[in-house]
Design brief:
The complex is a heterotrimer of chains A (about 250), B (about 250) and C (about 550). Chain A contains 3 helices and 10 strands, in the order ααββββββββββα. With about 250 residues, chain B is mainly α. Chain B is built from 7 helices and 2 strands. Chain B has a two-stranded antiparallel sheet with strand order 1-2. The chains are: A alpha+beta (about 250), B mainly alpha (about 250), C mainly alpha (about 550). The complex binds heme-A (2 copies), dinuclear copper ion and copper (II) ion. The site of dinuclear copper ion (CUA) has 9 residues of chain A, from loops.
Chain lengths: ~250, ~250, ~550
């Protein structure tokens, strides 16, 4: 199964493991059943002249079928159970302590990533202010003190080894945040705020796609996730903050 | 394409009518399958006077089941929306749901509609009143029809009254500034009551048809079917209204 | 002459004629849908290819193709043929009735369906063309004409077409329900109903419920678009720079409503095929259906459980994770009765002797695809894994195998099997086998590799493999292979159409019951009295006869050994 893209997330390891054994089991069931179908044809050719076999199904027949059915059912339950443990760990448990917070916003046909900045609070957003040409694609409200230090980026940069809490929203239509390398997917639904936790472990570049048809640019709606080591990440944040301040002062006459 | 259609020719001659040559009477006024013998063991088309009736009833019921789902979905919107609303700029959740004070006239309308179900039911039962039906079947007169007609007309009048009442309710609301699209609750209200009103208009059409049918149709069975199905439809609309009304008045 | 022809063949209330009309409608739809899918395949593999008279496909064109392909195939092929055409063809006969309960209603249903079909196709010809939101049409993408090309008039036509289809489907189903419940001939008790009839009973029940929900949802979407309501419209919408009117609805409502319809719908499209598979396996192994009761119970269970699993399409929609867990469980639960039927079919193959003929082959094909596609179900049913696989080609592979190909193969099985009822002739066997083997291989060649593309993370609805950041170029060889075998698959269907045309005149006549079948559609008598179950096969008292038809006058006497 080298088809899966390289995984860089903590849970990804478990997920790949689960996915692999699920696929293996299902594949062998598939092979066995297809073999049964073929052998039925061949078998019939061999004994085409033989007389009729069992007419009324015997008791053993039903017991046999029941056993196989129980086995298959047990299999499904096992699959569901193991799968559920991962799900519970991923989604039913709340956010971790002091996660890295990033807000992800889907817009036709762009992903925007917003960091709350030093004050750890996202600035207010006003739809009326949205205007990409004026460099305010999210409609940040300058009147709100929190928004001053908010970093808006088109690349998602994260530190390796720290839990991340994504705040998922959409400006126009439903988009789907899909990071194959993180084995991560959730829809960004307008009017609702989604939350998504994961922990990137392996530094490197990963792809961010859109998995929910959202218009003619759906296939082009891609972005990059860059996972850095903690120090590199701190340096990056610092530089972004500096440039923010620079812009602010530059803006002042 | 010969093979089947030769065979099909035969059938047209032997196509069964669905009426057994018996008077369409039954001990139980609303009863199903018919008399004492087990009709089901007979070939279809020979299953006694009520066969056709039961078919139409069954169709009406399954249709109404679908209609019920339709209303249930509209109502589900009613339950989703109060929780919906939207996230305001400051991340606070704002519900756009402004509870709507149901205009009191709705109570009167409800009473009227309930009354109309009663009149409808009496009308329906007249057509299954055994002695009268026998008389009609023997062609000695139309006692059942004559008895049922006034009740049917009463139902129509009450139905129209209800619709008028609804109209007044809408008038009042719009005077209070609740327009179709002024807020989610109001257009929910208009949509649900509107849909229900539309169903009633269809129902009144059916009632008029039944009224005409009672005098025009020559077969007693057909008269019964026309009235019976209309009645069940009407009852269902009464039932749906009770649900909707309860929602509008109590659940917000 | 022509007038009488029209009255006899077209403007008729005779169910067999309606069946033929439905078949032609389905054929038209499937040809259109197939051509669209081939265009899709071409565009995926050779994006720069310029089509004659059109030029290079734009991304929105691709999405329009996908949307219309899905809509045509789900509604106008796999709902119409197994759930409308086949019942009209044999349902009354199989229960010993000579007519439908409501012939006029039945005919009306067809004409509404046709109107719906034309409305849908007309979406191609309005300004900006067909809708591009996928067959699931999630709002708010479907709320604004400004959301994209095709979301204006095209989207409206789509909604209207769907609404019409809902009405038609329900009308037809009400008629089927009453027919099954009230018009059975004497002695045709429920325990003697053929399994096809059981399937139609359940799927008709599902239709009445599911399509009512869709009808309501479609109506709400339409009022949202044109009458200022906002059921599915949240507030604070900014669409390409412009602030939209504030709404207070939630797109989630549509997701729930659509899938509350959508999942039952996919079972509506396959249940008749499952019933047909049981009947044909009994016939072509010359043995009864073991555990007839079990099969009936499974059919009913699938029908009931099918109403409670819709959430498995919404695991990653941001729905409450506990709801995800619950829907995962119900989905696993519904896999069990399906598996039970599969196991019974597999077991049936080894009782008695297979009589190899094209209907049997296509039934085996149905089995093969249903298993192949069904087995990936329990994987998708795990929210955790679905969080990676959702809306990738893995899902596309799943439903093309379990729905598209299994469904289409059972349609083929039905047509090869019932063709004599229509024409008094059999379809040519050799052409049939060629059609089968090519289709089988090509179908696997088309849809199996899609699993791999899905595992590699390729999402659905992607007009091109190359984006600004990444490219799936490494999948290009796979995609090419898929495209080639898709063309082979479509080409194989030409054999089938030729066979139909050729056999109408050329093939030799056969007697009234060519498959030596037991069910009543083959009965020479019009008003039979049923004395035994639907699948009494095996050596009987009579020397040459190894089956006891339901119209037989003698009590069943089958030697058990
Ligand atoms: C019945 C269902 C059905 C069928 C048969 C098919 C058939 C095919 N589909 Fe389809 N497909 C869907 C249902 C179906 N599909 C749906 C629901 C979607 C999702 C749409 C969306 O996302 O919105 C989809 C999407 C879809 C995609 C994904 C596009 C994307 O998301 O980017 C692709 C890509 O290759 C594809 C390809 C094909 C191909 C090559 C065939 C080929 O197999 C075509 C070959 C044709 C046949 C083998 C059928 C021949 C049958 C007959 C001739 C019988 C006729 C007889 C009578 C009617 C009497 N389909
Ligand atoms: C006929 C149609 C049909 C059928 C029957 C099924 C059957 C099943 N489906 Fe599928 N499904 C679709 C049509 C169908 N599906 C469609 C169209 C979609 C996509 C819609 C869209 O997004 O556009 C979809 C999507 C879909 C999803 C959502 C995926 C996603 O979007 O992320 C899920 C998730 O749970 C799912 C699950 C299942 C399950 C568990 C079954 C089960 O019922 C399967 C049961 C069958 C088996 C389990 C096989 C049993 C075989 C054996 C037991 C063999 C035994 C072997 C030996 C003895 C050797 N399906
Ligand atoms: Cu955004 Cu697709
Ligand atoms: Cu489903």
């Amino acid at each position: 199964m080298n088809w899966l893209p390289p995984n860089g997330a903590l849970d990804g390891v478990t997920l790949d493991h689960l996915l692999r054994w699920n696929l293996a089991v299902v594949f062998w069931l598939f092979v066995m059943s297809q073999a049964l179908l073929v052998s039925a044809l061949l078998w019939r050719l061999r004994r085409s002249t033989a007389g009729p076999t069992m007419v009324r199904p015997s008791k053993a027949f039903f017991i046999g079928e029941l056993l196989v059915l129980l086995a298959v059912t047990g299999l499904y339950i096992a699959m569901d159970f193991t799968g559920h443990q991962l799900w519970a760990a991923r989604r039913e448990a709340g956010p971790a302590e002091h996660p890295v917070q990033v807000e992800v916003t889907g817009v036709q046909f762009q992903w925007y990533f917003r960091y709350p900045g030093a004050d750890d609070a996202y600035g207010r957003i006003r739809p009326a202010l949205v205007s990409a040409p004026n460099g305010n694609p999210l409609g940040l409200d300058p009147a709100d003190p929190h928004s001053a230090d908010d970093i808006v980026s088109s690349i998602l940069t994260l530190p390796a080894g720290r839990p991340v809490d994504l705040r998922l929203r959409s400006q126009d239509v439903i988009h789907g945040l899909f990071i194959p390398g993180m084995r991560l997917k959730q829809d960004a639904i307008p009017g609702l705020i989604g939350h998504l936790q994961f922990t990137p472990t392996v530094p490197g570049d990963y792809v961010i796609l859109c998995s929910q048809v959202c218009g003619l640019g759906h296939a082009r709606m891609q972005a990059r996730l860059r996972v850095l080591s903690q120090p590199d990440y701190d340096r990056w944040i610092a530089s972004r903050e500096k440039s923010l301040l620079a812009d602010a002062s530059g803006a002042r006459p | 394409m010969p093979a089947t259609f030769t065979r099909h020719q035969v059938e047209t001659e032997r196509r069964d009518t669905g009426y057994g040559g018996k008077p369409p009477v039954d001990r139980r006024p609303t009863g199903g399958g018919g008399g004492d013998e087990n009709w089901d063991s007979r070939p279809s088309g020979r299953r006694g006077p009520r066969e056709q009736l039961v078919r139409f009833r069954l169709a009406m019921f399954s249709g109404l089941a679908g209609d019920f789902v339709f209303f249930a979905v509209l109502v589900s919107a009613f339950f989703v929306r109060p929780s919906s609303g939207h996230i305001s700029a400051a991340d606070t959740f704002i519900s756009d749901w402004h509870p709507l004070q149901a205009p009191p006239i709705l109570w009167i309308n409800t009473a009227i509609l309930l009354l109309s179900t009663l009149t409808m039911e009496t009308a329906r039962r007249q057509l299954f009143h055994e002695i009268d039906v026998m008389e009609e079947w023997l062609g000695l007169g139309r006692p059942a029809v004559r008895r049922a007609a006034p009740w049917l007309i009463a139902t129509i009048v009450l139905g129209l009254l209800f619709l008028a009442g609804q109209w007044i309710a809408w008038e009042q609301l719009s005077r209070e500034g609740f327009f179709f699209s002024s807020n989610p609750n109001s257009h929910f209200f208009y949509l649900v009551t509107g849909t229900h009103a539309f169903h009633l208009i269809v129902g009144i059409g059916a009632l008029l048809f039944a009224l005409v049918a009672m005098f025009r149709f020559r077969k007693v069975e057909l008269r019964q079917i026309a009235v019976d199905c209309t009645a069940w439809y009407w009852h269902a609309m009464g039932l749906f209204w009770i649900f909707l009304f309860a929602l509008i008045v109590f659940f917000q | 002459m022509t007038v009488s022809f029209l009255r006899r063949r077209v403007f008729t209330t005779d169910h067999r004629q309606l069946a033929i009309l439905y078949l032609f409608l389905g054929l038209a739809a499937v040809i259109a849908g197939t051509l669209l899918s081939l265009l899709m395949r071409l565009h995926r593999t050779w994006p720069a290819l310029a089509l004659p008279f059109y030029g290079v496909l734009k991304p929105e064109d691709y999405l329009a193709l996908v949307t219309m392909h899905g809509t045509l195939m789900v509604f106008f092929v796999l709902t119409i043929v197994p759930q409308s055409a086949f019942p009209n063809l044999v349902l009354p006969a199989q229960i010993g009735a000579t007519r439908m309960a409501f012939p006029k209603l039945n005919a009306a249903a067809f004409w509404i369906t046709l109107a719906s079909f034309l409305t849908l196709l007309s979406a191609f010809f309005v300004p900006q063309g067909a809708p591009i939101a996928g067959w699931t049409s999630y709002p708010p993408f479907t709320e604004f004409a400004a959301a994209g090309p095709g979301q204006g008039a095209g989207m409206d036509l789509w909604i209207i077409a769907i609404a019409l289809f809902c009405v038609a489907a329900e009308a037809a189903s009400v008629n089927f329900l009453v027919t099954i419940l009230r018009l059975r001939c004497s002695g045709m008790t429920f325990r003697r109903l053929p399994l096809t009839v059981w399937s139609w009973l359940v799927s008709s029940g599902l239709t009445v419920i599911a399509f009512s929900a869709l009808l309501a949802a479609a109506a709400m979407l339409l009022t949202d678009r044109h009458f200022g309501t906002s059921f599915f419209l949240p507030s604070g919408e900014v669409l390409n720079g412009i602030v939209q009117r504030p709404g207070s609805g939630s797109p989630m409502l549509w997701l729930h409503l659509f899938w509350f319809f959508g999942h039952p719908e996919v079972y509506i499209s396959i249940l008749p095929g499952m019933g047909l598979a049981s009947s044909l396996l009994a016939n072509f192994t010359r043995r009864s259906v073991p555990a007839y009761g079990l099969m009936v119970v499974c059919t009913l269970l699938i029908g009931v459980l099918g109403l409670g699993v819709w959430g498995h399409h919404m695991f990653v929609s941001g729905m409450n994770p506990y709801a995800g867990t619950a829907f995962g469980l119900t989905t696993i639960a519904i896999a069990v009765p399906s598996s039970a039927e599969v196991l019974t079919w597999l077991a049936m193959l080894f009782r008695g002797r297979l009589q190899v003929a094209s209907p049997l082959l296509f039934t085996l094909g149905f089995l093969s695809f249903f298993i192949a596609g069904g087995l990936t179900g329990p994987i998708l049913a795990q929210p955790a894994l679905d969080a990676y696989l959702h809306n990738t080609f893995f899902v596309v592979a799943h439903f093309h195998l379990v729905m598209a190909m299994a469904g289409v193969f059972s349609v083929f099985a039905g047509i090869y099997y019932w063709y004599p009822l229509l024409t008094g002739r059999l379809l040519n066997e050799m052409l049939g086998q060629i059609h089968f083997w090519i289709s089988l291989v090509a179908a696997y060649g088309t849809f199996f590799p899609m699993h791999l593309a899905g595992l590699a993370g390729e999402p659905r609805h992607y007009a091109q493999l190359a984006g600004p950041v990444t490219t799936f170029a490494n999948l290009l060889p796979v995609e090419r292979g898929i495209t080639w075998s898709a063309f082979l698959l479509a080409a194989a269907q030409i054999v089938f159409l030729m066979n139909i045309l050729w056999s109408v005149r050329r093939c030799s006549h056969v007697d009234a019951n060519p498959w030596r079948a037991t069910t009543l559609e083959w009965s020479p008598i019009l008003h039979p009295i049923v004395r035994n179950g639907p699948y009494v096969y095996g050596p009987t008292a009579a020397p040459q006869q190894d089956f006891l038809p339901q119209w037989a006058t003698s009590e069943p006497r089958v030697r058990s050994s």
